[in-house]
Design a protein that fits this description.
This protein is α/β, with parallel strands linked by helices. It has 3 domains: 186 residues, 3-Layer(aba) Sandwich (Rossmann fold); 160 residues, 3-Layer(aba) Sandwich (Rossmann fold), CATH 3.40.50; 121 residues, phosphoenolpyruvate carboxylase, domain 3 (Up-down Bundle), CATH 1.20.1320. Helix content is 50%, strand content 13%. The chain contains 18 helices and 13 strands. The strands form 2 sheets. A 7-stranded parallel β-sheet has the order 3-4-2-5-6-1-7, sandwiched between helices. The chain has a 6-stranded parallel β-sheet with strand order 8-13-12-9-11-10, sandwiched between helices. The chain is globular, with a radius of gyration of 25 Å.
Length: 509
């Protein structure tokens, strides 16, 4: 018997694992509901059924380490046969480990590289897990590894795990196509077999008003932005006078690609300048509305000192110059965004009400995290910043350091954990009492992942800091709409089954 007796999976985990042992499955389950344990149950089933190996792929080293820990804790498989591989291990050493291990846990880029170089063959692998499966689109390594697995494995079975596969039918279908998914298992907080395991999570929106001085700057920047947006619409580069930032980025890619291929006409050149300017002005407005003056000031300073044609064109505009002057005046007076002090006051109130509370704060920008951290320290509130290893110049925390920070947070050495996207996925954050979103995010995937950090073992509360009549409100409601749509699409797939879309998938039978 591979599985240890002390493991007591929940009923819905056993049900999902049983179904996922039959055919390729996409499991959509909220963060903290035990997706890792489901993959373990299916893996044990496959190892009992076939003399084989299993592989778990996850996008980050910390998440890979969690899978390794789960196998070591709940199975009788020798630890030396549960191998965690990364690109940092020498290729020749990885080749030896592939032969030795029964369970291989790795980042997908490592496996893709070794498949291309012929260092590994997936013939003997009876089970393959794609964690954070919403990444399985476009050219991400998951798609390549899935194709190779279907071609090489004698007894293939795929399990894809995610808290949210995305908000559109097209994206979810792409994931299913790329990972050869044939059925979907979805649960949420309201599912009958999940409800008893979920603690109540309260939600509260904390609103602030954008100061009049901010509104003056906003009006000036919007006037400059509208010039570019109207030009793009009148020249038929967009179909609306109010394209989203995502639409502008997609347009920039199309126009730049066309210009590079040889369509170097005068209009295309101006389109490149206009769309690039619009994107930068959109970013500036986002900083003003959701982050504050100091962040806008730093960004405008970069534009002013730049020699790029796009930037010099913007900076020459008298309305932009006036916006810069107003921003400088506010910056020199150390004016903060009203959300900043409101956030500090909110944290103080939580700790006054519950001194041993664990609080996590999400923000989109590292500079914002740094500023909040400094203010908390000034107010005598213990906090730590959790960051990854992708920082330039060797900055950032190693996997070991990340785990140490989380352990100290878990033990109550400090009450507030601050971070950006790294806390959303890939790290086992302890159950917390309060989660503060310094700004809402338009992505339903990120919103679901953030919210899933609360209420795992006890009642929790999620707080959204929202600036009225700004991008904060727009992003908040956009994520809610996308989440609702995503649940509808995935539920439909679970009821009706996953249908083949692409015609060249020879393994669909």
């Amino acid at each position: 018997m591979i599985l240890k007796k002390e493991l007591e999976p929940r009923e819905y985990q056993k049900t999902i694992a049983e179904n996922a042992s039959k055919e390729n499955t996409l499991v959509v389950l909220p963060t903290g509901m035990g997706k890792t344990l489901i993959s373990l149950l299916v893996a044990v089933n496959r190892l009992d059924k076939y003399p084989s190996k299993v592989m778990i792929l996850s996008p980050t080293r910390p998440l890979s380490a969690q899978h390794q820990k789960t196998f070591e804790q709940f199975t009788h498989i020798p630890k030396e046969e549960i191998i965690l591989l990364t690109g940092k291990i020498k290729p020749e050493d990885r080749t030896v480990l592939y032969k030795k291990a029964q369970v291989i846990i790795a980042t997908p880029q490592t496996i893709e590289n070794d498949l291309e170089k012929g260092r590994i063959n997936l013939k003997d692998f009876s089970f393959l897990v794609f964690d954070e499966a919403h990444r399985g689109v476009k050219e991400y390594s998951y798609s390549y590894v899935a194709r190779k697995y279907r071609m090489q494995a004698e007894h293939p079975l795929i399990l894809a795990l995610t808290a949210s596969p995305g908000g559109t039918q097209e994206k979810i279908q792409d994931i299913c196509d790329n990972l050869f998914i044939k059925q979907v298992e979805i649960r949420d907080e309201n599912s009958v077999d999940v409800e008893k395991y979920i603690q109540q999570v309260e939600k509260e929106n904390v609103y602030v008003e954008l100061p009049e001085e901010f509104k003056k700057i906003k009006t000036l920047l919007e006037e400059v932005l509208n010039d570019d947006l109207y030009w793009l619409k009148e020249k038929h580069y967009t179909f609306t006078y109010k394209p989203t930032k995502g639409m502008l980025i997609a347009l920039q890619n199309r126009v730049s690609a066309s210009f590079t291929r040889g369509s170097k006409n005068y209009g295309a050149f101006w389109a490149i300048l206009r769309v690039a300017g619009a994107i930068k002005l959109e970013h500036a407005l986002g900083l003003l509305e959701t982050q504050g003056i100091r962040f806008l000031y730093e960004f405008l300073q970069k534009l002013e000192s730049s020699n790029k044609k796009t930037d010099t064109r913007i900076v020459k505009d008298p309305r932009f110059r006036e916006a810069m002057k107003l921003t400088h005046d506010l910056y020199s007076k150390n004016i903060e965004h009203p959300k900043m002090q409101k956030t500090i006051d909110t944290i103080k109130d939580f700790l006054k009400e519950k001194p041993n509370a664990k609080i996590i704060l999400f923000a989109n920008f590292r500079n914002t995290v740094d500023r909040i951290h400094n203010l908390l320290v000034e107010n005598g509130i213990g906090s730590e910043i959790l960051i990854g290893q992708t920082m330039k110049e060797g900055k950032g925390l190693s996997q070991k350091q990340q785990i140490e920070v989380l352990e100290r947070f878990k033990e109550g050495e400090f009450p507030v954990l601050l971070g950006t996207q790294i806390i959303e996925e890939g790290i086992d954050v302890p159950s917390i009492d309060y989660a503060i979103f310094y700004e809402p995010v338009a992505s339903e995937i990120r919103m679901i992942q953030r919210r899933g950090r609360v209420g795992r073992q006890s009642i929790g509360k999620v707080i959204f800091m929202i600036t009225k009549d700004t991008r904060d409100e727009a992003y908040y409601y956009a994520s809610l709409r996308k989440e609702s749509k995503m649940k509808g699409v995935v539920s439909s797939l679970q009821k009706k089954g996953v249908k083949k879309k692409k015609e060249n998938l020879m393994d669909w039978v």
